[in-house]
Write a structure and sequence with these properties.
This protein has about 300 residues and is mainly α. The protein has one domain (about 10-250). The protein has helices at about 15-25, 30-45, 45-55, 60-80, 85-95, 105-125, 130-150, 160-170, 175-190, 200-210, 210-220, 225-245, and strands at about 100, 280-285. Strands 1-2 form a two-stranded parallel sheet. The N and C termini lie far apart (about 40 Å).
């Protein structure tokens, strides 16, 4: 079976969980991991999101925050939304987010990045393009997740998600010292997954893949044309290499990954993941923003 046949015959309207699971754990596990990390960088460039993350103190232990976020989001990916661990993970995310006053628009924006950024990443750097049905399936997957988060007015198509994300960034991207601190600690964590001697190069390479509006909003120095050319060439080389590999026969899961360092493998208790904030909500939304509920990622 060729890798690009894995989702053939599945209906994106009804089989979207399986289609998205195949994409994220078999066909594009590295690409999805990287692109979703870059999606989070985009959220840090929105001051109402980046400053809240900094104020919450959750990035005092960046490795744990990273592990908790990925492990919680992995539960519905692996088991489906009806699975008991998936329901427990979504409850945990909602419990954490109810401690903060977050606008519905910010939550829709975070959800939009999870739909749009991976698709654009794979368009640019993937070993093959996503099919039309796979894009539709990813939209249904995140619309379902958004409904479980009680997010309102969720876009219905990929095009609507993309337009909303682009418009939101054009209006809200700007520098915030808290968002920059969160971006720096996240970039430091991601580089720590590589040998020490390679870490400065990993940070340099990561910034070379960030688009100019994101670079400007985070206050990073604009990469040189040479850096951007090297970054694109390296990604094209990787895509060509991966294209020649045989199909992946075992799903790649974060819980079994060496990048997960906070918990012992096989001993993750979903109900104990994340933070347990108490006290009064931290307000980062205007009082006239309308409904508040939980955003689509673990903060």
């Amino acid at each position: 079976m060729f890798r690009w046949d894995r989702n053939r015959g599945l209906d994106p309207q009804t089989d979207f969980e399986q289609i998205y699971r195949n994409l994220a754990t078999y066909d594009f596990p590295w690409d999805f991991n990287q692109s979703l990390s870059f999606a989070l960088f985009r959220t840090y460039a929105v001051p109402s999101v980046g400053a809240l993350l900094d104020d919450s103190g959750g990035f005092d232990d960046t490795q744990k925050r990273y592990d908790d976020t990925v492990l919680l989001l992995e539960q519905p990916l692996v088991g489906g939304f009806a699975d008991g661990d998936a329901k427990a993970a979504i409850r945990r995310i909602n419990q954490m987010h109810r401690a903060y006053d977050i606008s519905n628009d910010d939550m829709r924006y975070v959800l939009a990045t999870f739909v749009v950024v991976p698709k654009r990443w794979i368009d640019d750097y993937g070993w093959r393009a996503m099919t039309y049905d796979e894009v539709v399936a990813s939209v249904h997957y995140y619309r379902t997740l958004g409904r479980h988060m009680n997010i309102k007015d969720i876009p219905e198509t990929y095009e609507e998600f993309a337009a909303f994300m682009d418009d939101y960034e054009a209006e809200h991207f700007s520098y915030d010292a808290g968002g920059r601190r969160v971006a720096d600690t996240t970039l430091e964590l991601l580089s720590s997954f590589y040998p020490r001697f390679a870490r400065p190069g990993v940070r340099w390479f990561s910034r070379s893949l960030m688009d100019p509006p994101l670079i400007a909003a985070l206050g990073y120095k604009e990469p040189s044309n040479l850096a951007r050319s090297v970054g694109r060439a390296a990604m094209a080389t990787r895509a060509g290499f991966v294209r020649m590999l045989p199909p992946r026969l075992r799903a790649k899961r974060f819980e079994r990954s060496s990048r997960m360092k906070t918990y012992r493998k096989g001993a993750v208790v979903v109900e104990q993941l994340g933070t347990f904030p108490g006290g009064c909500p931290v307000s980062r939304a205007n009082s006239d923003d309308g409904d508040r509920t939980a955003p689509a990622v673990a903060r």
